[in-house]
Amino acid sequence: MTFVSLSAQTQNRKADHLRICLDEDVQFHTNTNGLERYRFTHCCLPEIDRQDISLTTTFLGKQLSAPLLISSMTGGTEQAGIINHRLAEVAQHYKIAMGVGSQRVVVEKPQVASTFAVRSQAPDILLFANLGAVQLNYDYGLERCQQIVDLLAADALILHLNPLQECIQTTGDTNFAYLLDKIATLCAKLPVPVIAKEVGNGISGVMAEKLLAAGVTAIDVAGAGGTSWAKVESERAENPLQRRLGTTFADWGLPTAECITSIRAKFPQVPLIASGGLRHGLDAAKALALGADLAGMALPFLQAAAESEAALHELVEVLIAEITTVLFCTGNTTIEQLKHSRALQSLK
């Protein structure tokens, strides 16, 4: 298959993913993010002034005004470009972090680079480049990883791990053999930090240990409970087998809350991002209280970005207000205080 036909395939897949996520029911149904198993202990007398609450935090050495990440979503098509530039504008305005979707399509078709290149709009944000880790087994080495980092002037590179999605995707890339060694080589040579991220099926404590030993700097758990990429790929399947696989494994994965607690128990200091089924500021606050450093969301930002810039600003204002309300009603003025307050209780 030629590079040109590959790029067309990748672009079509990007367009399909956006349409399906926005228009179809591709959420987990029985497997949840696990955050509903926790409840904050309400403090009826906080004895703090709400105006003194600060959500400011630092991640990978960069200060953010709130512990929020616009999770990696898209790029490579005209609609994706509009969405990414809207997301970058709101990230810059509120000083929150942002990741872009997989940049494999840029390597295959450099003409679409503008759909990812948002640094001119967002000069100060914490910005993550993104590539599927499995591409390291398909002729994507240090040079190409550096290329996509340079395109964004990115602060770090996300390597996303998606074995289930690749199994269900028609002509998916399923050679994951000896990949950990190649990740280790990349981490040793790439001048920016590498973040390991799942795509909705979770990273366990055991796997986090292996990834960190290979040189990965941070983990994004991207657990179960949100968008099911098995369902997404089932929607665009080209044959009954792929469609059946997507249906069978629609709720496969480790709940986000379980991933956070298992990794944090092993690694108290590792930079940790919680994503996977977070839908509002209360979810974000629970994830932070469990030990995450940033709360990542994709679908809420995608839906708002597809609507308008105003909808995006409204979303971030609401998320900030919700997290602030949790701090106020638990008697904490900072995220660090919340983490050490033991205000979050398990309902088990």
What would your notes on this structure say?
The protein is an alpha/beta fold and about 350 residues long. Helices cover about 45% and strands about 15% of the residues. It contains 14 helices and 12 strands. The chain has helices spanning about 5-25, 80-95, 105-110, 140-150, 165-170, 180-190, 205-215, 230-235, 240-250, 255-265, 280-290, 300-305, 310-330, 335-340, and strands at about 40, 55-60, 60-65, 70, 95-100, 125-130, 155-160, 195-200, 220, 270-275, 295, 345. It has an 8-stranded parallel barrel, surrounded by 6 helices. Helix 3 (about 105-110) links the parallel strand 5 (about 95-100) and strand 6. Helix 2 packs across helix 12 (about 300-305). The longest helix is centred in the N-terminal third of the chain and has 21 residues, at about 5-25. The radius of gyration is 19 Å and the shape is globular. The N and C termini lie far apart (about 55 Å). The model is unreliable at about 1-5 (pLDDT under 50).
